[in-house]
Design goal:
The complex is a heterodimer of chains A (about 290) and B (about 290). By secondary structure, chain A is mostly helical. Chain A is about 75% helix and about 0% strand. With about 290 residues, chain B is mainly alpha-helical. Classes of the chains: A mainly alpha (about 290), B mainly alpha (about 290). The interface between A and B is large, with 89 and 88 residues.
């Protein structure tokens, strides 16, 4: 009697254990399958980019290149004005976007977090209100504003549009970064006779560095990837950014698609974003969560 | 500190941002509304035209088709994104090495540009050189290659597949952070009471993720309502203009047909729809903060 009573739970425990280890293997198998599915498009694209141009247009296509070749990359490097031009355009616009975002959002965050301002919350809402307006709708009036000022086909012009997109998030994040700095640090600086500008430089800037990294990351990735504004504002071929160049590579000469060159271009467009993500994942995901959830 | 002085100093720090938003958001928005009441053209000239553009929009069959198509796209893709995102979050919320890796890989395409990923998938879907058909046939999912972009309905699904690949990690990462925030003890208590895994998901995880799901759904739906790149690149509005989205139709009118006034009226209508959606989102977020 007692023996049986003792036996039962043990047997049940063993059964549960077996089921559990089976489900662990199942979960692991699902994880591996998902990783394979998610990486498939990227991996075959990388492989296609190092095929010879002839093999890149082979029907039916092969997964693996039979012969390695950098011909597709060379073709993209010398495409029209040259890849260097387009990458330089994209980087310049991204750099200016980062500069504008920091120049506006750091002081704004400081002011909103650390000073008593009449109507502060109204001002804050006004600054974030552009989140509610789809920027696609603002492109026409912005275009009409910019055209007579020479800000179309201009780095500064496109960077301003990208800043419009990125500023609410940047201000929001900066305000929270400044608010998280302990009062005592600021008080000590004031006791030492610092002006507010000196306090910003000595006390706050070192403390909000992680927030600034996140602002920079997001501004870069957003500007590097942005499509419709670049399409409208950069009409001149030599001013194309990388994504716009890709669309025109696709058309190729004589109306046929140059598949190999397109693959190489896609990889070049993807690499900076993936590299940043892999290296700075911590900042990226943290910023992502604070922007979307809070 | 001197309160009177510091109030103006504070304002001084915020002033550049206020000026920027006034000049590059508020003013263009006002000008958009004004443009929508004129017959402005990209070729020059603009005369006040009353609400004629809005009357034209009312009668414009393609505008309604494009709005209908955008809503259809949004209604199709949003539940898929949220459902798969939630399942992916359940799968990877634990911080084991394999699960963290899976989470990182699922999130990876989120950082790639939508334009770039659309071109990548446009190649994968190509019936001659694309590898998507070949892979599906090799896996015995298909017996014959699919021609993806000659029928609007099939083209829509092609776009959905590519966008799900690109943004499913977005919802997942929000859900993961939510699931990780759920008190361990609740789950452990339920386990002791003999609740199965799916019972715990249904009774504990889902109810406690309610707000996050709502929020992610709204953000995602608004993004889908503004879809442009994926259709511009993959379907070019075709076949026969059946896959024009609202933003695409606005772009087409403003920058291809040069009808800025009419395009602006369409933009105003779309903006009103989006503002309504975002207002709901902010309302929900504020309630979340209070609790």
């Amino acid at each position: 009697m007692t023996a049986i009573a003792h036996d039962l739970p043990v047997q049940r425990g063993a059964a549960v254990g077996a089921a559990q280890s089976r489900s662990i293997y199942l979960v692991a198998a699902i994880c591996v399958a998902i990783i394979a599915m998610m990486l498939f498009p990227l991996v075959v694209s990388v492989l296609a980019s190092i095929k010879t141009p002839d093999e890149a247009v082979a029907v039916p296509p092969n997964y693996l290149p039979h012969q390695l070749s950098l011909a597709n990359y060379l073709k993209v490097f010398s495409y029209q004005a040259g890849l260097a031009t387009y990458v330089f355009n994209s980087l310049t616009v991204a750099f200016l976007t980062i500069l504008f975002c920091l120049a506006l959002a750091v002081p704004a965050g400081y002011g909103l977090a650390r000073f008593r301002i009449p109507g502060k919350e109204v001002i804050f809402l006004f600054l974030l209100a552009s989140l509610m307006v789809p920027y696609q709708a603002l492109l026409t009036p912005l275009y009409l504003m910019f055209a007579p000022l020479g800000l179309t086909n201009s780095y500064v012009g496109l960077a301003i549009v990208h800043t419009v997109l990125q500023l609410p998030f940047s201000i929001y994040l900066m305000r929270h970064s400044f608010e998280a700095v302990p009062r005592e640090l600021e008080e000590a600086a004031v006791m030492d006779g610092c002006t507010s500008l000196q306090a910003l430089k000595r006390v706050f800037l070192p403390a909000i560095r992680p927030g600034m990294v996140t602002v920079i990351l997001f501004a870069f990735i957003q500007s590097w990837n942005e499509f419709i504004a670049a399409l409208i504002f950069m009409g001149k071929e030599t001013m194309f950014t990388v994504p716009i160049m890709l669309v025109s590579v696709r058309l190729g000469r004589f109306g046929t698609v140059d598949w190999g060159a397109l693959q190489a271009g896609i990889i070049i467009a993807i690499v900076p974003c993936v590299a940043i993500y892999v290296l700075l994942q911590r900042y990226y995901v943290a910023g992502f969560l604070s922007g979307a959830v809070k | 500190m001197n309160a009177v002085r510091s109030r103006y100093i504070g304002l001084l720090y915020v002033a550049p941002a206020i000026v920027f938003v006034a000049v590059f958001v508020a003013y263009p928005l006002g000008r958009l509304v004004w443009l929508s009441l004129t017959n402005a053209s990209l070729l020059g000239g603009a005369r006040f035209d009353g609400i004629n553009n809005y009357i034209r929009a009312w009668k414009d069959a393609t505008f309604w088709t494009s709005l209908g198509f955008t809503i259809k796209y949004t209604l199709y893709i949003t539940p898929i994104l949220m459902g798969l995102g939630f399942l992916a979050a359940l799968l990877t919320a634990e911080n084991t090495p394999l699960k963290k890796l899976t989470r990182g890989v699922i999130f990876l395409p989120v950082v790639i540009g939508l334009g770039t990923s659309s071109l990548l998938w446009w190649w994968l879907f190509d019936q001659q050189v694309g590898l998507f058909n070949r892979a599906l046939i090799d896996l015995h999912v298909l017996s014959e290659p699919i021609v993806w972009f000659t029928h609007a309905e099939v083209a829509l699904w092609a776009v959905i597949i590519s966008v799900v690949w690109k943004v499913v990690g977005f919802g997942m990462i929000l859900f993961v952070s939510n699931i990780q925030g759920i008190d361990r003890e609740i789950n452990e208590a339920a386990m002791i009471d003999g609740a199965s895994y799916w019972q715990r998901v249904g009774r504990i995880v889902l109810p406690l993720s309610y707000r996050t799901i709502l929020l992610a759904t709204l953000i995602s739906a608004i993004g889908s309502m503004l879809a442009f790149e994926q259709f511009y690149i993959m379907t070019a509005g075709g076949p026969q203009g059946h896959t024009f989205t609202s933003v695409y139709w606005i772009y087409q009118n403003s920058f291809v047909f040069f009808k800025l006034g009419y395009g602006s009226a369409l933009s105003v209508i779309l903006t009103l729809i989006i503002v309504l959606g975002t207002a709901m989102q902010i309302f929900l977020t504020r309630r979340r903060e209070r609790t």
